Amino acid sequence: MPATPAWPPRSAPRLFVEQRLDQGAQVSLGGNQAHYLSRVMRAGPGDAVVLCDDQTGEWAARVVEAGKHAVLLEAVEQLRPREQVPDFWLCPALLKKDRFDLVLEKATELGVARIVPVLTRRCVADKLNADRARSIVTEAAEQCARTALPELGDVTKLDALLRGWPQDRALFFADELGGEPAAAAFAAHSGPAALITGPEGGFDDAEREAIGAHPQARPITLGPRILRGETAAIAATALWMGMRGDWE
């Protein structure tokens, strides 16, 4: 006797929705999400879709109606509660658009809880399209099966970030001039943490001094090579997740 296929199948599309989900809840999707389901994925009545609401978690849903401009779904059963992600913030300096897009995407995949874009003196970019950034992190969360979206903070000037820094959160400072080896620093610390990385031209002397003087700052080195801003942010985040995050 053939085995009963798993439901929902692993190939089912995944989408985040704004509506809070519950068993039997009906969700109407329009715009790009409706186009994706009906035109790209060719979803029709009865097909499975996995929905996440960033509140209750992950749900299996069935398509009730599928049209060109709207798709109606019904939540059938909860698959997973909203995950508890490690209490780790990433504070990357703004980079050129494509490079910062990569940071947003990979930080989401790696499990960062909060992303705070930082504006420094040597940043080539000085603005961030918040809607586009939110779309990038949402799509990344859908692709890597996260059930919790990272919080995306406003672009913040470095001096304002330091002034308002919480007293209970360590700020690991990726300093190209050196510091404690990152792995050792991460292993020695427990509790809320964050990482700040610099722009294409690095931090200037005044910024480096200001960060280093902050009581919560802990300068770290990411090895003998000078890394691009996006490489430093991604590599250090992965290392933290391996040492102190949910990769253990």
Structural class: alpha/beta
Number of helical regions = 7
Through-space gap between termini: 40 Å
CATH architecture of the largest domain: 3-Layer(aba) Sandwich
Strand content: 25-35%
Tell me the helix content. Answer: 25-40%
How would the global form be characterised? elongated
**Order of strands, widest sheet:** 9-7-6-13-11-14-12
Query: What is the H-and-E element order?
Result: EEHEEEEHEEHEEHEEHEHEH
Strand count, sense and barrel status of the largest sheet are: 7 strands, parallel
Radius of gyration: 21 Å
Tally the structural domains.
2
CATH topology of the largest domain: Alpha/beta knot
Low-confidence stretches: none
Query: What is the CATH class designation of the largest domain?
Result: Alpha Beta
- The residue-averaged pLDDT reads 95
* Beta-strand segment tally: 14
Notes on the protein architecture:
The protein folds into 2 domains: 14-81, Ribosomal Protein L25, Chain P, CATH 2.40.240.20; 88-243, SPOUT methyltransferase, trefoil knot domain (Alpha/beta knot), CATH 3.40.1280.10. The radius of gyration is 21 Å and the shape is elongated. 30% of the residues lie in helices and 26% in strands. It contains 7 helices and 14 strands. The strands form 3 sheets. It has a 7-stranded parallel β-sheet with strand order 9-7-6-13-11-14-12, sandwiched between helices. β4 and β5 form a beta hairpin. 33% of the residues are buried. The protein has 248 residues and is α/β, with parallel strands linked by helices.
